[in-house]
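Project outcomes to date are best conveyed with an example. Our students and postdoctoral researchers have been running inverse folding experiments weekly, and each run begins with a structure described purely in tokens. The record below, which covers 479 residues, was selected by the lab manager from last quarter's runs and is presented without edits.
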């Protein structure tokens, strides 16, 4: 074996490697800076079983003779600059167990001879420039467990012959130009744990996939899927991530969603879903990321959201939600809360400051009333605070000086009064400050203007017209 991975080797790929003969079984130069084309002399390494050259700077085409090495089982040339087509000599690599050619610039169609590589268990051709149809001959690889073809320009439908791949555990066909319906025969690939078909042009309703009881990851987002969320989906108890956003799905989110007790990620945003939020979301102890934004959801925010203690990001913006914002002080790890562009009313909870993990808080475009709670100054990790276009009253609390890491503060189009507090000058990370459309008056404190000499590059206030409410010499825009 010759293991020289991640050692900083530079220069061109040495032709002399081919003279090491049949005694060399493993060659690992991954992570080096070797460049140039692969030498044809590698064909002399007839005893080679592993060739690992990922993350180098290899260019040019793959020598067709490389696939004639009789004992080669692992070929890894991921993340290089390889171009050209896959040579038809791949049919001779009948001992190859794993082939990784991801992140190159391979072109042309995937040759039908790929089906002659009958010993393959893992085949990865992700992120290249392959075109044309998926070759049905892949179905002739009986023990294939992982198939990665995402990030190409493949067209047409998924050939039915792939239903023979009964040992398949991972199927990555995302980021292509595949069309038609998602095939129902996928339900027979019962060993699948990871199925990714997102960012294609699949249409129609979801087929029955309730037989995939081992499925952990299901990505079908950014297609043209229609219909309702099927009942079988809530019976897949092994599911960890479910992403169906940016489709045209309709109907409601049923209470049975809580059956997915192991779910960490649920993205159903940018569809046409209706109905109210299920109170059973509170029974999902592992859910960390929930996106239901840009639908047509109605009703109030269930108080049981406070029981979702693993939650890190909650996106509910762009719906028709009503009622008040419930207390979420038990959701200690929540980093992102987007409730903007709904019809929520009432005050911002006084204990909002207890959510000290928050980095982004968007409550704009609602009907919130009352004053900005002073406890907001306790959100020391906050980077983005958007409260614009509500009905907030009172003055800007002095406690905002505690938001030293805040980059965006949008308070425009409310009913705020008083003057800008001097303490705002301590918000040294501020880049965008919007205060227009309020009843704030007086002269902008010098300390706030000094922020314009640091990070602040957008500062808008009511400093325009014949009778400006605010005197501001450092605002970037006056209205």
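After processing, the design step wrote out the following sequence:
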């Amino acid at each position: 074996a010759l293991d020289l991975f991640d050692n900083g080797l530079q220069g061109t790929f040495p032709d002399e490697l081919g003279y090491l003969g049949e005694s060399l079984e493993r060659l690992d130069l991954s992570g080096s800076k070797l460049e140039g084309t692969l030498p044809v002399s590698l064909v002399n390494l007839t005893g080679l079983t592993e060739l690992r050259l990922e993350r180098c700077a290899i260019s040019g085409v793959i020598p067709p003779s490389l696939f004639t090495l009789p004992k080669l089982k692992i070929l890894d040339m991921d993340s290089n600059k390889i171009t050209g087509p896959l040579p038809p000599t791949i049919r001779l690599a009948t001992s190859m167990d794993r082939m990784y050619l991801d992140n190159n610039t391979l072109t042309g169609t995937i040759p039908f001879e790929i089906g002659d590589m009958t010993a393959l268990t893992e085949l990865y051709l992700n992120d290249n420039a392959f075109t044309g149809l998926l070759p049905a001959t892949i179905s002739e690889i009986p023990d294939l467990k992982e198939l990665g073809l995402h990030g190409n320009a493949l067209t047409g439908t998924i050939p039915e012959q792939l239903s023979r791949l009964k040992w398949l555990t991972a199927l990555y066909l995302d980021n292509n130009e595949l069309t038609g319906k998602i095939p129902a025969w996928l339900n027979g690939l019962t060993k699948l744990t990871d199925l990714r078909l997102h960012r294609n042009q699949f249409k129609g309703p979801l087929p029955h996939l309730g037989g995939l009881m081992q499925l952990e990851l299901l990505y079908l987002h950014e297609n043209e899927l229609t219909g309702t969320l099927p009942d079988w989906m809530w019976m897949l108890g092994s599911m960890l991530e479910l992403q169906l956003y940016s489709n045209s799905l309709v109907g409601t989110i049923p209470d049975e969603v809580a059956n997915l007790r192991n779910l960490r990620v649920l993205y159903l945003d940018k569809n046409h879903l209706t109905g109210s939020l299920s109170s059973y979301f509170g029974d999902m102890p592992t859910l960390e990321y929930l996106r239901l934004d840009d639908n047509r959801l109605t009703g109030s925010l269930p108080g049981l959201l406070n029981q979702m203690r693993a939650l890190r990001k909650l996106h509910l913006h762009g719906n028709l939600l009503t009622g008040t914002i419930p207390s979420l002080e038990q959701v200690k790890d929540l980093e992102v809360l987007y409730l903007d562009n709904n019809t929520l009313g009432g005050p911002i909870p006084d204990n909002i400051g207890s959510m000290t993990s928050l980095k982004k808080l968007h409550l704009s475009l609602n009907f919130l009333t009352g004053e900005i709670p002073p406890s907001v100054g306790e959100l020391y990790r906050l980077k983005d605070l958007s409260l614009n276009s509500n009905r907030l009253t009172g003055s800007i609390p002095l406690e905002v000086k505690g938001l030293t890491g805040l980059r965006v503060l949008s308070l425009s189009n409310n009913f705020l009064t008083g003057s800008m507090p001097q303490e705002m000058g301590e918000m040294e990370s501020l880049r965008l400050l919007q205060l227009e459309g309020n009843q704030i008056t007086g002269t902008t404190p010098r300390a706030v203007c000094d922020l314009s000499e640091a990070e602040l590059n957008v500062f808008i206030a009511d400093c325009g017209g014949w009778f400006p409410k605010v005197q501001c010499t450092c605002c970037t825009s006056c209205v």
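The radius of gyration is 29 Å. The chain has a mean pLDDT of 95. The training component of this project remains on track.
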